[in-house]
Design goal:
Blueprint (H helix, E strand, L loop, with lengths): L1 H22 L13 H11 L2 H6 L3 E3 L2 E2 L10 E4 L30 H7 L2 H17 L4 E2 L23 H16 L4 E7 L12 E3 L2 H8 L1 H8 L5 E4 L3 E2 L2 E2 L4 H11 L5 E3 L8 H6 L28 H9 L4 H17 L14 H14 L1 E5 L14 E4 L24 H9 L3 E4 L19 H13 L3 E7 L22 H11 L3 E6 L14 E5 L6 H10 L12 E2 L21 E3 L8 H6 L4 E3 L10 E3 L3 E2 L3 E2 L4 E10 L5 E11 L10 E10 L4 E9 L5 E3 L4 E3 L3 E10 L2 E10 L1
Parallel strand pairs: 3-4, 4-5, 5-7, 6-8, 6-18, 7-10, 12-13, 12-14, 14-15, 15-16, 22-30
Antiparallel strand pairs: 1-2, 2-3, 8-9, 11-16, 17-19, 20-23, 21-23, 23-26, 24-25, 24-29, 27-28, 29-30
Bound molecules: alpha-D-glucopyranose.
Length: 735
């Protein structure tokens, strides 16, 4: 009996095991997440038809491209933008889909993030915006933008990280790393030399190799080689005669060759112009092409895309080798496996209180106090009976407009709302000026009468203890907005006149500028306090009020210079060909002398320097030392010093180190930012700070050897708190 039972047990075990092995289908490698991604890519590619490979390389709708439906490989859904996840857009045109589940958190503009000079802020920013993109099921977030601020006229500077490549390089890395931890690809943009909006679709930029390497590429290189960004967006313009969306030097040689980028190159929307060039010059996914003669067609006829049927045709004829489409398809598959086919990625979240706090924190950390004579700020509520708030930007929604970074924010707290919540009946308000409704690509002037707006504002100004003017630019066309550049360096909508009228009736004027660009300040000597507030997003009013009330001590520093007048700026010191170009070509004649590099080297006084920002407290920096006097090229200089908070409120100072090469065979800027550290200190507290400066970072691009070069000899490390305020200079030798 015993034997019989054991035989039955054994037999049923055999059946069970056999059943399991037979019934269990073998999982194809591309679906097996235990296998390395490269094996999965190769396997998927081996199963795909030529048509399926080509389909991966172009859009199927306004913001999506194909997967491989037959193999269960999902589509790639993309969304703007750098400051938050854009609302859903219609399948085949720029219209809003009018969903009711896609309101988001509007985070501060990237100029504000750069103004924090605090990579920790960049990390919490990337994490939060990545969680929102993940929750909205996007595989690609079309941001951050890191184009260099070459001129205050550029309509899109507000979306970028200022005039210095080192600051932009340090601030872009954590943002990308944290976005991508959500299984969402960041898409650093616009690669490259897209530094204005005029003629952006075709202007052919000429710039030297040195300026390309030392100024315009570093932030992209950091995104690729340090942050390991998974996608990059080609820019609309041309560089040396080739469109940047399919540019052999930029995409094949530098990006994929030198920098070993293994991600996906995506066009800007409509940035592709030629099948052969798109195929051979490094483009991977073509988006946004209007195929009926390049207009904004309703039927985008995706099969007519350059990388659609025309591409398939060339592959079938053999005029383009299949290896070309295999390389593209591999990159797209890698993007898919890293994002939508990564089952371990988190689930994200949308418009949460936590994200609102992140937005507020970054905003508070980025607001810059430019002037505060007589310590008019922070407001002392016990002394103030009547605060007159004047200016349209105290109430205007500024998360709307601006072009593709436009957001449908769940909330947007305006400055006036937050001020009233804080100061109640002490607040009086008058709009003062009107800019007209946001309208993409055109200016619709306001119908309101400017004179009566101004006189009403001057009236309440005269009756108040202090005037809080909240103006600046806005997201209208030809202001801080994609698709056009500014036409004047001055504040628009009669604000200069309004400010000068106000200060005639009240000396206690605080001017708050909400903008993403520098502006002229003809009234700068007449107003005691000036605050540079950025597009601060959903928590704008709360952040601004925290700073004005002293709840938060401002610690932002300018990521770009405020020149006294436009003609002082490098890009505006030559001719039309230098800016904005002659509608076909543009030559960046200021070359490597962009921003403070220009003003320093030409000894041109500026209104407010790069890296400048005040505090409600004061700081003292001690004489620095370096860990040794002589360094080899592979080493890192460590400069140490102490920072003391000599005031009676907590605050933060940003120590900055600019490097000068004492003697150099080529022209170099007077000094260049190569290290910084934001130091938070309680009242009276002292901290020892050490800033590492890689000797390799002190290199210049040698056009003779086409490579980076660090000469041996003396280098001066300038330690200061802005480009205009060097406190100590320490010399080191490179051997
Ligand atoms: C726009 C912008 C780009 C944006 C894209 C999709 O033209 O240049 O930044 O991501 O098209 O909206």
């Amino acid at each position: 009996m015993q034997n019989r039972v054991s035989r039955i047990l054994l037999f049923s075990l055999v059946i069970f095991l056999a059943g399991n092995t037979i019934a269990q289908p073998v999982k194809p490698i591309y679906l097996d997440e235990t296998r390395p991604i490269e094996e999965r890519v190769k396997n998927a590619l081996s199963l795909m038809t030529l048509e399926e490979k080509v389909a991966l390389c172009h859009a199927q709708s306004k913001f999506s491209s194909r997967g491989v439906a037959r193999l269960g490989i999902p589509e790639v859904w993309m969304s703007d933008g750098p400051h938050g996840v854009r609302e859903e857009i219609l399948w085949d045109n720029w219209g809003e889909a009018k969903w009711t589940n896609d309101s988001c958190t509007a985070f501060p503009a990237l100029t504000c993030l750069a103004a924090t000079w605090n990579p920790d802020m960049s990390a919490i920013y990337g994490k939060a915006v990545g969680e929102e993109a993940r929750y909205r099921n996007k595989a690609v977030l079309l941001g951050p933008g890191v184009n260099i601020y070459r001129t205050p006229m550029n309509g899109r500077n507000f979306e970028y990280m200022g005039e210095d490549p080192y600051l932009a390089s340090r601030m872009v890395v954590p943002y990308i790393q944290e976005v991508q931890k959500n299984g969402v690809a960041a898409c650093v943009k616009h690669f490259a030399l897209n530094n204005q909006e005029n003629w952006r679709g075709h202007i052919d930029v000429q710039v030297s190799d040195r300026a390309l390497r030392e100024i315009y590429l570093p932030a992209f290189k950091a995104a690729v080689t340090e942050a390991k960004v998974w996608s990059i967006m080609g820019s609309y313009n041309q560089f040396r005669g080739e469109h940047c969306c399919h540019n052999d030097l930029l995409l094949n040689k530098i990006l994929k060759g030198e920098w070993k980028f293994d991600g996906t190159v995506i066009t800007d929307w409509g940035g592709a112009h030629d099948t052969k060039q798109a195929a051979l010059n490094g483009l991977d996914i073509e988006m946004g092409t209007g195929t009926d003669g390049m207009t904004r067609s309703l039927t985008n006829a995706y099969d007519n895309y350059y990388l659609a049927l025309p591409f398939l045709d060339e592959l079938k004829k053999g005029t383009i080798p299949v290896s070309v489409v295999d390389e593209k398809a591999s990159r797209v598959l890698r993007l898919i496996f890293r994002t939508v086919m990564n089952s371990k990625r988190p689930y994200g979240s949308l418009a949460t209180p936590e994200h609102a706090q992140v937005a507020r924190k970054i905003a508070e950390d980025g607001i810059v106090l430019l002037k505060n004579d007589g310590n008019l700020l922070p407001f002392d509520a016990s002394k103030l009976k009547n605060i007159a708030v004047i200016g349209e930007n105290a109430t205007r929604k500024l998360t709307v407009g601006g072009g593709s970074s436009n957001l449908k924010a769940r909330n947007e707290v305006s400055p006036l709302q937050a001020l009233c919540a804080k100061y109640g009946s002490k607040i009086s308000y008058s709009m003062g000026y009107a800019s007209g409704p946001p309208a993409y690509g055109r200016v619709i002037p306001s119908k309101l009468n400017a004179d009566s707006l101004r006189s009403a504002a001057v009236k309440i100004a005269g009756a108040a203890d202090v005037v809080l003017f909240i103006g600046g630019l806005n997201k209208n066309h030809r202001q801080d907005c994609e698709g056009g550049d500014r036409q004047s360096y001055n504040l628009p909508f009669g604000q200069d006149k309004l400010i000068s009228e106000i200060q005639k009736v009240n000396k206690n004027v605080v001017v708050v500028l909400v903008s993403g660009n520098a502006v002229a300040m003809p009234w700068v000597d007449k107003v005691p306090a000036i605050v540079q507030a950025w597009y601060l997003g959903s928590e704008a009013g709360n952040a601004l009020t925290s700073v004005l009330s002293g709840e938060v001590n401002p610690s932002g520093k300018l990521p770009f210079t405020f020149p006294k007048q436009l003609s002082d700026c490098g890009a505006h010191s030559f001719d039309k060909l230098c800016f904005p170009g002659d509608s076909v070509h543009e030559i960046y004649k200021e070359d490597i002398l962009v921003g403070y590099r220009w003003y320093d080297t030409k000894t041109i006084p500026v209104q407010f320097p790069f890296g400048y920002g005040l505090s409600y407290t004061t700081f003292e920096i001690s004489k620095p030392t370096t860990d040794k006097p002589v360094y080899s090229r592979a080493e890192t200089v460590k400069m140490s010093f102490t920072v003391k908070n000599t005031g009676n409120v907590a605050g933060a100072e940003v120590a900055q180190i600019y490097v000068t090469q004492s003697k150099c065979p080529v022209m170099r800027p007077v000094k260049e930012l190569k290290g910084f550290k934001k130091v938070f200190l309680k009242a009276g507290e002292t901290k020892t700070v050490t800033i590492p400066i890689k000797v390799q970072d002190m290199a210049y691009w040698d056009e003779k050897t086409n490579n980076w070069k660090v000469d041996s000899g003396e280098f001066i490390l300038n330690l200061g708190t802005s480009a205009g305020d060097v406190k100590y200079m320490g010399a080191v030798q490179v051997k």
